Amino acid sequence: MIFMASTGNSAAKAKYEQKVPAFYYCPTHTDCQLLREQWIRARYERSEFIHVERQEPYSAGYREGFLWKRGRDNGQFLSRKFILSEREGALKYFNKHDAREPKALMKIQTINATFQPTKIGNPHGLQITYLKDNSTRNIFVYHEDGKEMVDWFNAIRAARFHYLQVAFPGAHDVDLVSKLTRNYIKEGYMEKTGPKHTEGFKKRWFTLDDRRLMYFKDPLDAYARGEVFIGSKESGYTVLPGLPSSTQGYHWQFGITIVTPDRKFLFACETEDEQKEWIAVFQGVVNRPMLPQEYAVEAHFKHKP
C-alpha cells in the first residue's frame, strides 16, 4: 500500500507539475490556507502546469486589475486600480479610476509581498512593502477571489525573478528564487524606550524583516515609527537577556538588550516565552555574517537623524 501511494504520488507529480515556473510559490503546510488551496486547484482543477498558456495571468510580465486597498489614514478598504509592469520595473496604484498619475510607484527592486490573513483580518489579505527614501512603506490589499490574489502574488514574484536574472546574470535560478519574496522572521508586541532610556517604555508592534527591526504604533500602520538595523557579531552587535540594572519605566518584566556599535536598544516582553523567542531570532540574525550590500544599508541607518 505504501509503495502504491508513493509511486502514485510521484506519477501524479510528474503529470500535474510538469511545467511549474521557477518563480511560482509552492506552499508548505505552514503557509496560509489560501496559498495551499490555490496550489491544489492550480495543479488539478486548472492544470496550469500542463498547459503553459494558463500561466498567462502571472507570467506575462504585465498585469492590471482592481484590489481592495486599506486607506492609510482612515483604515477603510477601497477599490484601487493596480498595474504591474516588468518593462517599467514597477507596481503602481491609482487613487482615482481615471487618474493619469499613480498615487504610488513601487520599484520591483525593493518590493516584497507576504500573505497576512490574521493581521489584515481577511483570508486573502496580502501585505506589500517597498522602500521609499530607504524607509519601509506598507500597503495592505485583498481581493474576494482567491485565485486573483494568488495570481497577483506570483506575478510580483515573476517580475522580481526576471529583474534579478538581469541584475545577477551569472546566478543560478535556485539562488534567485529564495530572494523573490520573504515572510517576516517574527512579529509581535514588545515595549521599547527611547535613546536616552529615561522616557518610559511604550508598547509597540514589532516586525523583524531580515536585518530590519521595525516598530509601529499599530500593526496596520503604513510607516514604521522607527527601524533598527541588526548587524552581525563581527560588526559589534550582541543580544543580551534582561535590561541594565538602572533601567526604569517598564511594565513588562522580560527584558532584551540589543547592543550595537552606537547604542543600546532596550525592549521588554510580556512573557518569558516571548522573550526567549525574540532572543532566539535576534541571535540568529547576529550570528549570520553580513553580505557586502548590507554594509551600505547599515551605513545609511547610522547617518539617519
TrEMBL record:
GO terms for molecular function: GTPase activator activity; phosphatidylinositol bisphosphate binding; phosphatidylinositol-3,4,5-trisphosphate binding; zinc ion binding. Residues 60-161, 183-287 form the PH domain. Signal peptide: none annotated. Coiled coil: none annotated. Keywords: Cytoplasm, GTPase activation, Metal-binding, Repeat, Zinc, Zinc-finger. It is found in: Cytoplasm. GO terms for cellular component: cytoplasm; plasma membrane. Its main location: cytoplasm. It holds the Pfam family PH. This is PH domain-containing protein. It comes from Pygocentrus nattereri (Red-bellied piranha).
